[in-house]
Amino acid sequence: xxxxxxxHTARKKWTHYFWEFIMLFLAVFCGFLAEYQLEHTIENQRxxxxxxxxxxxxxxxxxxxxxxxKINNDISSKLDTxxxxxxxxxxxxxxxxMLYYYAQYVTYVSYFSSNxxxxxxxxxxxxxxxxxxxxxxxxxxYDKKIRELEKEYGLSKSEFEKIEDLHFKIFDIYTMEILFxxxxxxxxxxxxxxxxxxxxxxxxxxxxxxxGWLKFESNIYAFQTKEFLKPIRKDAEELIAVxxxxxxxx
Length: 250
Description:
This protein is about 75% helix and about 0% strand. The protein has helices at about 15-85, 95-105, 115-125, 135-170, 175-180, 190-195, 205-245.
């Protein structure tokens, strides 16, 4: 009868299991770090794309704001001149042509609309979190002022509608369109001032009301320029500077 000897497997020491655990832990941890670093790199790349797009849009905004500020100042000045002419006690030297010239600016209503598609993407996608904290804060401040300006435009809309209603009653709009076509230039102003046969409604009470509203409109332009357009342009310029610094844009 054969006798088989039992073989014994050597038992592993506890230190062996400890080092196995350490190696497994390090492998998982390094994998986590690599994945985190990859995600962080991708987010940084996305943030720079957003920053570059926003930078381009803000440059368009500042250019538009500067133009609009000049337009508002010019319209406000023209409306004030109309008010001054219409209020003069002796109007012998004031021709209908002069009134038509200055009254044309009543309907030149220009609104600022931001090129904010990138800001909207950042907000709607929740990607504002990937932007640097100081940049995200500036974006939020700029966006807030844009929305405040939109509310201001909504409040002043009814006033402009009232002014236009009076405007169409006092002046002949067909004549206005002929005198001031799309390609009209200031060069013809002097000859326009000589026109005396143009229709202007002879209603002192209505003209007085119209003039009062024009002064109010002039004040609205001045207010919007001071309280909204200039601060928004300043915020846009500051945000451009921050984007250039933080994301090394040119």
